[in-house]
Each structure stands twice: as structure tokens, then as C-alpha cells.
């Protein structure tokens, strides 16, 4: 990565319009489907319609990363204890060129803020095992056994808000 890319400024915002949502899905396609070979038919799901999506964009509008928050019944079905006060962070993806810029951490914090705004008390996530240290540095704690998701090893993690 060149020095100018390391100093690019970006913003993280809620993806509220169609263009932002499409940018989120494009980042997910690049990272999960393209890089990690997750089948496209399982990358997108019924939860995308009601989830809160966040988007990181470079100052020139190029999308750098995305994440989503499930809340309510959708989140309760995913978390370990069915607690409706716990949100579910997922589909966190950062483009290859933006890794190392702090984009992932900024996206996690934006999802947490969206969770707080909805009165949630904690956020759960299913972390790819290679990313456990990233989430631990952000205050998440792993629980439960390792499990496969899309053929990739994961662990459940949680952080109280």
C-alpha cells in the first residue's frame, strides 16, 4: 500500500439510501464472495432488508467497508441466549486496499452506536477465528466452542455496551 493511501480520510455513516446499500453489498461481494469464496446465495439473506447497515467511504466516494446490525427478533435468534436486548453485528468487511487504516474498528464502533440508539445492552458477533484478536482489542470476549460458518471457523463473541 502506498503512503498516500495510508493517509486517506474517510467517513463512516449509516447506509440509508439505495446507493449506500448497493455500495455495502458490493464491498461484501468483493470480500466474502470474491476473496473468501463464500457462496453468493448465502451471503445475502432476508435480514438485509431490516438490518442497520453502516458504510465507510473514502473522501472521493469510494466504498472502503461495511457492517450491519441485526436487532429485535432477528438478533435474538442469532445470539447465544435469545436475548432481544442484544444486537448482532455481522457482515463486517473491509476492502483489501483499506485494511490497516482503522476502517474495521470505526465500523464496529458505528454499529455499537446504532445498537445504543436502539436501546440494546450488548452486541454479539460471530468472528472468523483469525479475527479474534481484532475483536478482543475492541472489548469483545469469546464464548462457546468454535463452529463452521460458510466453511470458515468462527467463535461467538459479545461486548456489553
TrEMBL record:
<dbReference type="Pfam" id="PF13673">
    <property type="entry name" value="Acetyltransf_10"/>
</dbReference>
<feature type="domain" description="N-acetyltransferase">
    <location>
        <begin position="10"/>
        <end position="161"/>
    </location>
</feature>
<dbReference type="InterPro" id="IPR016181">
    <property type="entry name" value="Acyl_CoA_acyltransferase"/>
</dbReference>
<dbReference type="InterPro" id="IPR000182">
    <property type="entry name" value="GNAT_dom"/>
</dbReference>
<protein>
    <submittedName>
        <fullName>GNAT family N-acetyltransferase</fullName>
    </submittedName>
</protein>
<keyword id="KW-0808">Transferase</keyword>
<dbReference type="InterPro" id="IPR050832">
    <property type="entry name" value="Bact_Acetyltransf"/>
</dbReference>
<keyword id="KW-0012">Acyltransferase</keyword>
Amino acid at each position: 500500500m502506498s503512503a498516500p493511501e495510508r493517509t486517506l480520510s474517510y467517513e463512516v455513516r449509516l447506509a440509508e439510501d439505495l446507493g449506500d446499500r448497493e455500495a455495502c453489498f458490493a464491498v461484501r461481494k468483493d470480500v466474502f464472495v470474491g476473496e473468501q469464496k463464500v457462496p453468493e446465495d448465502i451471503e445475502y439473506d432476508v435480514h438485509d432488508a431490516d438490518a442497520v447497515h453502516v458504510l465507510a467511504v473514502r473522501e472521493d466516494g469510494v466504498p472502503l467497508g461495511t457492517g450491519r446490525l441485526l436487532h429485535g427478533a432477528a438478533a435474538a435468534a442469532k445470539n447465544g441466549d435469545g436475548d432481544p436486548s442484544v444486537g448482532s453485528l455481522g457482515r463486517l468487511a473491509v476492502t483489501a486496499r483499506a485494511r490497516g487504516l482503522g476502517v474495521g474498528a470505526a465500523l464496529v464502533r458505528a454499529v455499537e452506536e446504532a445498537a445504543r440508539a436502539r436501546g440494546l445492552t450488548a452486541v454479539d458477533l460471530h468472528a472468523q477465528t483469525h479475527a479474534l484478536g481484532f475483536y478482543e482489542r475492541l472489548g469483545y470476549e469469546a464464548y462457546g466452542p468454535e463452529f463452521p460458518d460458510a466453511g470458515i471457523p468462527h467463535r461467538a463473541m459479545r461486548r456489553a455496551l
